[in-house]
Records
---
Amino acid sequence: MVGDKALANTIDLTLQHGPYVRRNVATVADGKTAIEEWEPHLLLVDIDVEAGRAIQLIDDARARGQIGVIALTRRSDLRGKLDAFARGADDYIGVPFVPDDLVARAHAVIRRTHGTAGKLLPRLRIGDLEIDVLNRKVLAGEHELHLTSLEQALLYLLAANAGTTLTREQILDALWGTDFVIESNVVDRHVRALRAKLQNDWHKPRYIETVSNAGYRFIPVSRAEKN
């Protein structure tokens, strides 16, 4: 259960590396219903949703039996972690996160809870990009690109929200967190670095488009495929 749509989309894309049917709900009430009626193998719950009331969903998951639980939070204080574990969370991950970390944790929790987690799918295809989470590289056509963890997270964030303009503030929040104070042009610099590796000319964008006075938008297919 994740209230932030951009974050929820990123988690959904990331978990496509496993053979999982995924569902997201944005409210505590809908989360309770999903736990009761759907009985998922794994619950990822943003414990900050609805002023922290979402943490109660851990209790609901534990009451249903074999549901693995990963708590997510943007907070850095120890109290939230202790509370989540005291209620029975199997793992805890801070936001922002890198995609391969979430894949590994989700796979491990499902395996511990259910005995097997299914086959890991290391590669995802998005348009004419192929993302290899195990080796942290991207194939763009015939070019093999090696990304830093931050570049990988930026690519997942943009690709997961393909066609939607993400503001610089949304990108900052998703990749650096709400409490991290950094220079104002950090998003632009990292987008430029990712574009350079993708060999993506901003004048004729194939993957990442600049939306004037707004932010950035991922183009799910190349310009050549559109024409």
Note: The two ends are 38 Å apart (CA to CA).
---
Amino acid sequence: MDLILIQTLNAVQYGLLLFLVASGLTLIFGVMGVINLAHGSFYMMGAYVAFTLTSMTGNLLVTIVLGTILSALLGAVLEWALFSRLYQRNHLQQVLLTYGLILIFEELRSLLVGDAVYSVKVPSWLDFSVPLGSVMTYPAYRLFMSGICLAVAVGLYFLIQRTVIGARIRAGASNRAMVQILGINIDWLFRLVFSLGVALAAFARMINAPSAMVSPGMGTQVLIVSFVVVIVGGIGSVWGALLASLLVAFADTFGKVFLPDYASIAIYVVMAAILLWRPEGLFKS
């Protein structure tokens, strides 16, 4: 039972982190109609920003706040300079440009911080473990991380469902042409959505930096899993992304524990089963 409890906590934590990354991806595609292969690079960027700024400030929380702001600003600049030119282009051109961004980000990472593997220290006030049962313990920082991710998810819910901006985002995901007819500044809306997506991806990796090594190539893996989440949850649906993230996280976590020989295909089995049942995904945008 202790093992099941620990793996459940791990799955929830992984699912919430994955949701932060995938929700930005599904918003960008659902509202803007852009296939963004570079989304994993924003996730990777968060890890290296966390390593660099923590080395300079010595404070992880300050690093996360500054890094999230800088990531949102970078997203706004990229949307204005590059992605705003893609809205009327076909998906092949979108894929080519965003794949080019992956290569650029990887080269910049190599030039600026090298190809070594780094680590970020857990804040001293969270560097302890919580007992689970009589034998096993669980890192307090992981519980803290899950709580922060849950708080961000709740905040995203209120932003999308309870604010005027959220209503415009939902309208843009449902009927972009109608949003333009109603006189809403679609350029400003797209810039906001893209900045939010970049900030969520970077934030997820920054807060996870003390729990996972900072290494090259991490963006590619999370990009593939994020697309699985987006497809399973329903393209453009934030709440579908939340449910799909948790399903994928539980399948992956418990698959590695109970079926290690088949763990690598567990999430794809889940995806295939759901798409056979609901080809449009769990939710429609």
Note: The mean pLDDT is 88.
